[in-house]
Amino acid sequence: MLLGHIIPQKTLLQSTKKHGMLCSPSGTSPGHPNQNAMRTTFKLFLSCLFCLVLPLASGVGNEDEVFVLLTPVVPEQTAEQEQTVEQEQTVEQARIVEPERKEGEAGYRMTLTINDVEYPFRWCPPGTFMMGSPTSEEGRNHHEIQHQVTLTQGFWMLETEVTQAMWQSTMGQNPSARKSDKLPVETVSWNDCQEYIQRLHSLGVAPVGYRFSLPTEAQWEYACRAGTTTPFHFGDTIDRDKANFGRNWARTTEVGLYPANAWGLYDMHGNVWEWCLDWYGDYPNGNITDPVGASEGTNRVLRGGGWFHLAGDCRSAFRRDREPSVRNHAMGMRLALVRVE
Fold it and tell me: Are residues 12 and 153 in the same domain?
């Protein structure tokens, strides 16, 4: 789109004498009034290009002598474009220098390539932590009874939620409502996740001594906290610069958009809910080692919160449960690699 700016014709004449080209208001060169239309159009095009580099005059002298200088106008951005720009800025803010990690250290990175798609995993070492939330935590629910959990076996956790590129390359289809390779896969049930995992197993790509799985609820919270005890791995409160929640974007966002936790895991709060392996049930009384959830039940556990859920739902300790066949556009998954028993 072009928009006219008015400058004095006298100023233009002075500025163009030494360059040998002039564009008049009529679009023809002075002294050549009878040029044919094609030549006139061509000269107008060349002259306007030249005019773009002429300096604007500081003021207008004779108001009758004006020239319309054509300059490009940038169209206004749509709401979608503005959101994309803001997301890109958030990505830049989220990028930090990756610390040097030794093999066996928390957050050590390993990448598998499956069906030409990279799967980056982070190491979660054995350890003990307090699962659940203290009674003083804002937004706490009664079923978040705090208790000590010890995990005797380390495991690998996928650095991001499973992306649509990962799912599509293995399953041959994409159930997500909003599609893009770098977005998390959504609209998947717990049962769908099990089928996906079985497909991965059939490829024989798991490291020796490990198998693909959904994380247990204890593994998920342990990995999410990454040594922290606050409601969120980044502190006591959450805001739109740290996670996609509360309809920030009114949709899912690309994985890895927000800062990772201390072990290099992204989007543990918000974006999509993540299915866990366990049946939902009450926590056991007292300390426990390597818990795997209830022995039976009707609902499976979901963790992490979603893009349209409130801040309290995204806390490290928050628990949600749904029937294993349920799907919606805020339900996704994250893979774990656990030791073969």
Answer: no
pLDDT digits (tens, 9 = 90+) for 259-277: 999 999 999 999 999 999 9
3-class DSSP state of 232: strand
pTM of the predicted structure, to 2 decimals: 0.74
**What string of DSSP letters covers 127-181?**
EEEEESB-TTSTT--TT-B-EEEEE-S-EEEESSPPBHHHHHHHHS----SS--T
Tell me the one-letter amino acid at 275.
Answer: W
Extract the tokens encoding 37.
């239309």
- pLDDT tens readout for residues 154-196: 999 999 999 999 999 999 999 999 999 999 999 999 999 999 9
Euclidean distance between the first and the last CA atom of the chain, given in angstroms as a whole number: 66
| CA–CA dist 237, 225 (Å, integer) | 14
> What CATH number is associated with residue 88?
3.90.1580.10
How many helices (DSSP H) and strands (DSSP E) are in the chain? Answer: 6, 14
